Amino acid sequence: MLRRPKPTDSEADLLREQEHFLTSGAPSAASVVRRPDKRRGEAGEGEGRSGENEGSQRDVVTIEDLPDQLPSLTPAPPKKSRFKASRVTFEDEDAEERLDRHDTHVSAVLSRIVERDTSSTPISLPAFTGMAFPKVLHRSETSNQVPLSSAGGKKSIFARQIAPQKLKECKTTLHSSSEAAPTPETSMDTDQCDAAVEPAAVSGPRLVSGQGLRGPDNSGETTRIHMENQAKLQAMSQSEILEEQKKLLSQLDPRLVDFVRSRKAQSVPSFPSPSKHPKDKSATEDPPVQDVSRESGSCSAAVLCQKPQEVEMEGEEEELSAPPPAVTEEDLPVKPQKEWVHMNKLEPEKLEWLRDLPEPRRKGTKKAMQARFDFAGTLIPPTEDLPTHLGLHHHGEEPERAGYSLQELFLLSRSQVIQQRTLSLSTLANILSKARAGEYVSVLKGSVTSTLLDAGLLFLLRFALDDSVEGVMSAAVHALKALLVCAEDEECLDCTFSWFRGLASFPLLPSAQEEEDEEDEGLDESMKETAKEKEERKSDHEVARQDAVKGLLKMKLLPRLRYILEVVRPSPRVVQDVLEILTRLARHSSSSATQVLDSPRLMETVMSEFLPTSWSPSSQSIYGLPLSSAMKLLRVLATSGRHACARLLNSLGASERLSHLLSAEPNELLLEPTESLRITTEAYRLWAIAAGYGQACKLYMDLYPALVTALQSVHRLPPASDPLLPLQLQRFLALLSLLTQVTHTAGCHQELQAGMVSSGGEECPPPPPVSWGHVTGLQTSLMGHLKGFIKNLDDPLQKDGSLTLIPVYLVYLEAYYHQLSRQNCFKPVETLQELELLTSDVLLPLMSHSVVQSLIKNLKSSSVVCNAQAIPLGPEITNNLPGLACTGWRNRPGLVAPSSPFPLLTGLGLLLETITGIHKDLSSKFTGLLLSEPVTGYLRSCSQATPSLSHTKAWLLRHEHHLLYLLLLLAHRLVPLDSEVAKHASLYHQVALVVLPWLLPGSEYLAHELLSTIVFSKDLISEGHSGGPEAVELGELKLHEETQKDTSPSLQTVGALLREACVQLPSIRGCFLTHLAHLESSVIVSRDALLGHNPWIKSHLLPELTGPILPSDWPFLPLVSLYEQAGVSDGGGLAVEELPQGALQAVTHCLQWLLLLEVWREEALKVVLPVAKFARLSCVFLCSSDLFLERPVQRLTWGLFRLLTRSTKLDSLDLNVPPPGLASFQDLYSALVSQYEAVSFGDRLFGCWVLLPLQRRYSTTMRLAVFGEHVGMLRSLGVTLEQLSIPIERFTSPPEDSLPLLRLYFRSLVTGTLKCSWCPVLYVAALSHVNSFIFSQDAAAQEVETARHSMLRKIYYLTDEVLRSHLLLFRLPQHHLQLGFDMYEQLPPIRAKRLERVLGLQESSVDKGD
Predict the structure, then answer these.
(1) Are 449 and 399 in contact, with CB atoms under 8 Å apart?
(2) Among candidate residues 557, 535, 555, 531, the one with its CA nearest the CA of residue 546
(3) Residue 461 has pLDDT above 90, yes or no
(4) Which of 424, 695, 893, 1338 is 20 to 30 A away from residue 873, measured at CA?
(5) What are residue 444's DSSP bridge partners?
(6) What is the pLDDT of residues 973-1027, one digit of tens each?
(7) How far apart, in whole angstroms, are the C-alpha atoms of residue 155 and residue 718?
């Protein structure tokens, strides 16, 4: 056993112990490592060097598991050196050289030693005493020491012993200078003090000490200088003193001024005295808030909260306040006693907190202030003075302001004190709840939620979930629930569950963001990383920044939540929060729902603890009782896919739970009344989801008696004043949704049975256990219920409940009759009679009822499409955490509000579409609905609307699209039958064209049906058979007579082209359907969902919301797809030599459709920018070398060109804006010009297309390209001014100001590249610009003026007389003249003088040269 060294050990003992240690072989407590010197290279480089270099290396002792730097316990601002900022350093400067330059050898210091002159220094001998040695100073002998309080600061015993001597010297100095009269001194900061009060302040100088002066009387010299200064000050007036002071302050360095003031501040406390000046009011106020950016950079905590929230206070700027006076013993509320430890010295910095808080600022300020919140998350106004007992005041940066900032809450959440961590997390949860509700939108700049997420809130909460203290963990769960879950969003989704296709929903995925992966560029497809590999390679922070839910799942949130539920077994509130968090995670996507299902023991814990098969009502804990939130979690998980639903029903025992919960009445479940209603409602919804897949149908036959009993209780609804009424209504709505899905599934039984027999059961799914005969018995009773509810509309107390239930009955009846028409047992005659009775007894009375009529009047105000721009400020929605923005939906008009007619009209439209398809004669009975003023006005508003797309609107827009589609189908049936409806045919067609590019993923079948039936319907394009083409011809003829323009080809051909297009409408429809064939699989999936083919449905989760199904420029689709197949390749040539078969016909049909829309449905194409139209039509010239030469293509393209270049449309054609899908228009134009040079053969149509972008108002780049790189094309660009149909003034005005382009114009004219017979349009344009340039009188730079003179001289000496006269005598462009421009007979006097002056200058310069 080794022993520790002792102080008595000699060196021999230590060496002996060292030898013993080395022979024992015991491991050492510290290891010696040789670290490489960064300035001298790596460690291995010095091995072969001499011993001198080896000796220069140092031994470094390190201890294992000890970090190099101490961890920062509390965030503190980095220390900054005052001198480092003034030094100039360079990046490439060697640190060793800089060290050698500043840290030289000691000889350099010793060589510069200069002995001080001591000849005049007085020598004082020590006093002689009778003692052999000086007396030793004992601590007890402190009579002559200065007390600690008056000595100021922390001083040693020796310093306190010397202090009395300094005081004596100071008194001697005062006595020697008492002859001088005391005068007030004016300091640098304009504070004037009385000399009688502060004698020391005026007896000598504060700054000049005399140190360094040689001579015996250095102190007298400083006194003499001081007295001269005082005499000068006495001779000056107060105004002169202030003026000199201002002059000094303006000339001196601010740091020097601060130094002088600090010297004065140090000298004043040594002689304390009360000031005679009154207190300034601003002195009691707090200093202004520091700049937020500076504040955020000063401490590490600010990194967590990069942009603290700021509240605006309008008002006047607050004046700068003086610092508060120093704390004295009299100011303390508690006087320190001598017996108290360490209270013999006053510490002003610490005692500041014992004073009363300064009052909050009363004046307003335009400066943004940091937002502060109370513990409930309420924003505290900066001017509010709250009492301190609320606990909102703390030792922060603004002690007078109550509340906590986000930055301070982040710091508290990492505190060592449990209560502080819990309090901060609870406060953050309250702030998040209010922020998600939109309470801060109008009062704060920026978004609280996004600021917290950027600061790392997800990681903070995830770390807090791992806290061993249950209180902190519970607060973290609550904060995470506040971040992820919005209760009102969930309420809205629950309310729309019973609507048509309400059980389907969009995944709450963030908008897809394209990422540029430079690493994969140039690699083969097999070498590139897959999306899953890229996701795994990302860090948690990168994933969370793009998708908060994915980030949480990557941080192992699910195992922790399972541990909390299974092991911690927290309070009921925490359990509810955890279940709601799991529900939100399941709504994110099907993959997230699968992760929840696959998480070990998570769902087993939920099923066993919160959905038990048996329970006791006397349980004190929430464990062991069925919870509605747990059942809702199962329902949302089942929505993600049929396989997940089957796992829940079979493997996890959800089917058994449904039997236990739904076989009895809610009041028999031994639960609280509200909870029993909620859990049975969620059980019906889960069952409806399963029935929507064709599953759990055997349960329908087992629980049929319980379902009938539940249906019979619909007449026993509680009164309107009962708080349980909304829950009862939701329960009945869920039950009817279940019956609707079971009816759809039973209707598919016969088809599946036949398909299984024919296909041998290989591809066709098995038929469900329930057949059509099992569901037919419910229709009669439900019809009776519906009639009763219609009668109840007259009762004001039952009106609201009836309006809530009637739409679901209508949806059920639509499902019943739709499936009935597909059965073998369908009896047409009996069904037609039944439908007539339904119409006369139910539908017509319902539509004509005053309550329904007043409800329909809210159609426009409840619409999302019509009110896209008028939506109020909503909640905070971040990109990585999308939501539905349903805050306050009950109190404002909207699609889901109680006053909305959308559920009723959608159910009615579904039923009308089905019964009019079976009984076509019933269609005419419903014309009143379409012709009603609210519906017509609503459709007219929709035709003018341009709604935006986002998660907050998509889930509502989907339901509104259903209603618009149903109204259009009804109109399509009624237009041929009713003349009054036919008058609005163009409106219906316009709405159909507008709605088509709005349709969202999941509605592909609606888009297919619109294209197949309505969009290309001759009945809805009424202009085609009511003299529309003839009207166009007459209008163009009138225009021709007014302008007297001999256009070629004539615009009168547009009428004939329209007439031909109307005949070709069926072929045009086939063309577009062919080009949309790639959507066939999506159309089939959408059709199965919308038509109720339940056994074929894979998931009730809609496709990811990436955008509408069709692009807004879908009418150009055949052209664009043809260009992509056969267009210009990267090398500049055509990708293929020959066009695909049928390409000419497809392009012709596309151009016919575009011409028809441009003439008669111009509003439908308003979403397509004119530059986008021009770019898409350019594909006609780019996709082939001769397609534009075909006769039908030529005629149609000419017509479209005339329409695009009408005088009313030219100004809106802005080619400086890049077209959608292109980086810039210049790239497209470069391809056009190259194609024109290669294959145009001087075609006039192609020439007009190339000339259009050369107008003066467009970019100079395109004109430079034509006259520079592609100047050869001017030989074949023979378009006349009449053929162009664009005023020549658009090419010539305003005058060109680009000198390179003007030189190119001049060169092309002089060299003969540009001639009037070859290119009339550009010849006139070049003449006009060159003529304006050479005769311009505007002042210009020397280079421009030299170019003018040079051009003018060269023109004068041209040998081509015609060109010379054109350039000199050009006057104005005139399109009706043969040349295209007018000329002067002779030069005007001003121009002649300029010419003479320029030529005279040349002659004089030549003479000087001679």
Answers:
(1) no
(2) 535
(3) yes
(4) 424
(5) 311
(6) 999 999 999 999 999 999 999 999 999 999 999 999 999 999 999 999 988 777 6
(7) 84
SS3 1186: coil
Look at residues 806, 929, 795, 827 and name the one whose alpha carbon lies nearest to residue 499. 806
Phi/psi at 881 (nearest 5 deg)?
A: -145, 75
Nearest to 1270 by CA among 1319, 1222, 1316: 1319
- Answer whether 802's CB lies under 8 Å from 822's CB: no
Query: CA angle, 1003 as apex, 998 and 1004 as ends, to 5°?
Result: 95
Facing residues of 1128 across strands?
1134
Asked if the model's pLDDT at residue 173 lies above 60, the reply is no
Show the CA angle centred on residue 542, arms to residues 537 and 543, nearest 5°: 80
Identity (one letter) of the amino acid at 959?
H
**What pLDDT digit, counting tens, does each position of 1013-1040 carry?**
999 999 999 887 776 676 776 666 555 5
Q: How far apart are CA 859 and CA 933, in angstroms?
A: 11
Per residue in 720-735, pLDDT (tens digit) is: 888 999 999 999 999 9
- Tokens at residue 443, please? 């009062």
Question: Helix, strand, or coil here: 734?
Answer: helix
Q: Tell me how many degrees the CA angle 1405-1407-1409 measures, rounded to the nearest 5.
A: 70
> In DSSP terms, which residues pair with 192 in a beta bridge?
186
> pLDDT value at position 804?
94
What is the Cα–Cα distance from 983 to 846, expressed in whole angstroms? 26
Q: What gap in Å lies between CA 724 and CA 628, rounded to an integer?
A: 16
Structural element, H or E, at residue 1370? strand 1370-1373
CA 916/CA 924 separation, integer angstroms: 9
Three-state SS at 812: helix
Both tokens assigned to 832 = 């037609």
pLDDT digits (tens, 9 = 90+) for 445-457: 888 999 999 999 9
- DSSP-derived pairing of the beta strands 369-370 and 1370-1373: unpaired
Q: How many helices (H) and strands (E) does the chain have?
A: 67, 8
- pLDDT value at position 874? 57
pLDDT at 868 over 80: no
Residue 198 clears pLDDT 50, i.e. is over it: no
**Could you tell me which of 289, 283, 282 has the C-alpha nearest to residue 396?**
289
User: How many Å apart are CA 1171 and CA 1178, to the nearest integer?
Assistant: 11
DSSP 1251-1284: HGGGSTTS-HHHHHIIIIITGGGGGT----HHHH
Pairing of strands 31-33, 60-62: antiparallel
Q: What is the DSSP string of 411-439?
A: HHTT-SSHHHHHHHHHHHHHHHHHHHTTT
- State the angle between helix axes of 457-465 and 470-484 in degrees (0 to 180), rounded to the nearest 10: 140
Type of residue at 229: N
Instruction: Pull the structure tokens for residue 223.
Output: 């006194």
| Site of tokens 């919804």 | 685
CA 1040 to chain centre: 53
Digit-coded pLDDT (tens) for 914-938: 999 999 999 999 999 999 999 999 9
- Dihedral angle over CA of 38, 39, 44, 48, nearest 10: -160
Higher pLDDT, 303 or 1318: 1318
| Residue in the block written with tokens 């309470």 | 439
Provide DSSP, 963-1027: HHHHHHHHHHHHTTT-HHHHTTHHHHHHHHHHHGGGPPTT-HHHHHHIIIIITT-TTT-GGGGTT
Q: Which residues contact 611 (CB under 8 A, 6 or more apart)?
A: 626, 627, 630, 631, 634, 654, 657
The rounded radius of gyration (Å) of the Cα atoms in the chain is: 45
Contacts of 319 (CB under 8 A, 6+ apart): 282
CA 140 – CA 137 distance, rounded (Å) = 9
Closest C-alpha to 907, from 813, 1013, 794: 813
Neighbouring CB atoms inside 10 A of 100's CB total: 11
- The strand pair at 369-370 and 310-311 is best described as antiparallel
Q: Which two tokens stand for residue 237?
A: 């007036």
| pLDDT the model gives residue 803 | 94
